[in-house]
Write a structure and sequence with these properties.
The chain has 397 residues and is of the alpha+beta class. Helices cover 22% and strands 21% of the residues. The strands form 5 sheets. The protein has a 7-stranded mixed β-sheet. The chain has a 4-stranded antiparallel β-sheet with strand order 8-13-9-10. It is a single-pass membrane protein.
């Protein structure tokens, strides 16, 4: 997860032109996509306290690395610490208490303890006061909405004077009027611009990037089904993956992604918000969207497509075996962003230990939801780290 530091003298947190550097964006997408894979694991019984050391320590002299620590089971925690299940913004499928998930209350008894220091307890009053006249934007998919709702419900409990609106084209947003603090959620499946592409009438071609991704799928829901890198000025032939076979075909209709152009759903956000929080890039498949037997998925290993195509389960096993490379990818990302206004909030490994905190079938779902998180729940701790991180930035500045 990446957040932009507060900057009150100007609302522009990225260069005034609306484009992003391709290398930074691709690295960001790849790295953040890895941090969602942990949601594929779950256990019914709470795990014992666990310690871990981040692969790339963010600790500096005189500061605390809140991402390094352990979970401690605390029987004394009897109720949600900052809001309850009656907050109306909580999506039904995430409301584990109202959905009668068997361990919904037990989830809240786990407390995160940073190693070698203490994390300041969340104080909604102090947060509202500290970030008066500030705007915070969450940009990404439903997992970022998970975090957005957690923060909103915590602040809503202590400050009820609200304006509900859609700042900078957001999917939803609220301003806490007494403090002029705005938080908003910009929904997008990809950070980069994407849309239908037709070889004979491609309007994107005139304004897009020199290098773009082309997707053979006709359904926007299948965006990760096939991704082919091609050049704008040499697209007479490309490789397409169709019904499990790699073929050399003429230029076809489909979807394209301009990797250095922001998606329209959040293009205006950097000029409005003081702080931006990004997440995107996890991958999925849904039988309701396509038939994985008739149209197998294409998996890659070390940049090379795996043929013949693997079944979804076999592909997932392969991905999990190679997750160790996530450490290397994260290391490159940390180094690439050193000295920039982008800050990395490391929440991946602390979340890997909390498979018990997924909604599962709460809320009447017919299948296990092992991607999102119960609210109240683990996402509240994400916000604890986020706020502590912001405070450290303010102190350094």
């Amino acid at each position: 997860m990446a957040a932009r530091a507060p900057h009150h003298s100007s609302k522009k947190l990225v260069p005034s032109n609306s484009s992003l550097a391709p290398r930074a964006l691709i690295s960001l997408l790849c790295a953040i996509s890895l941090y969602f894979c942990f949601s594929l694991f779950r256990r019914d019984a709470p795990p014992p306290p666990l310690l871990f050391h981040p692969a790339v320590p963010a600790k500096s002299s005189g500061s605390c690395n809140y991402s390094e620590g352990c979970w401690i089971y605390d029987q004394s925690i009897r109720s949600p610490p900052r809001y309850d299940h009656t907050c109306k913004e909580i999506f039904k499928g995430w409301n584990c208490i109202a959905g009668n998930k068997s361990n919904a209350v037990d989830i809240l008894r786990w407390r995160w303890k940073p190693r070698g220091c203490d994390m300041p307890p969340f104080d909604p009053w102090r947060f509202l006061e500290q970030f008066r006249d500030t705007s915070i934007g969450f940009v990404g998919d439903s997992l970022n909405r998970n975090m957005f709702v957690s923060l909103f419900c915590a602040l809503r409990k202590v400050s009820a004077e609200l304006k509900k609106w859609r700042p900078a084209g957001a999917d939803r947003g609220f301003t806490f009027l007494k403090y002029n603090l705005t938080i908003a959620y910009h929904q997008t499946n990809l950070l980069a611009r994407y849309g239908e592409h037709h070889s004979h009438t491609d309007t994107l071609l005139k304004t897009g990037s020199e290098v773009f991704l082309f997707l053979a799928s006709r359904s926007r829901e299948l965006m990760i089904h096939v991704i082919i890198l091609t050049m704008k000025n040499s697209c007479s032939f490309i490789l397409l993956y169709i019904i499990g076979i790699l073929e050399s075909l003429g230029y076809k209709d489909g979807y394209r992604i301009d990797v250095d152009v922001p998606d329209g759903s959040w293009a205006a956000a950097p000029h409005f918000h003081d702080i931006l929080i990004f997440n995107t890039g996890h991958w999925w498949w849904a039988p309701s969207k396509f038939d994985p037997v008739k149209t197998p998925m294409l998996f890659f290993e070390k940049g090379v497509p795996v043929t013949p195509p693997l079944t979804p389960n076999a592909g997932l096993d392969m991905v999990l075996r190679h997750m160790i490379h996530a450490c290397d990818v994260n290391g490159h990302l940390y180094r690439a962003l050193e000295g920039s206004k982008f800050q990395i909030l490391e929440i991946t490994r602390m979340s890997e230990f909390r498979a018990d905190a997924h909604p599962s079938t709460a809320g009447g779902k017919r299948h296990d939801d092992c991607m999102h998180w119960c609210l109240p729940g683990l996402t509240d701790t994400w916000n604890d780290l986020f706020i502590a991180h912001l405070n450290n930035i303010k102190v350094r500045n």
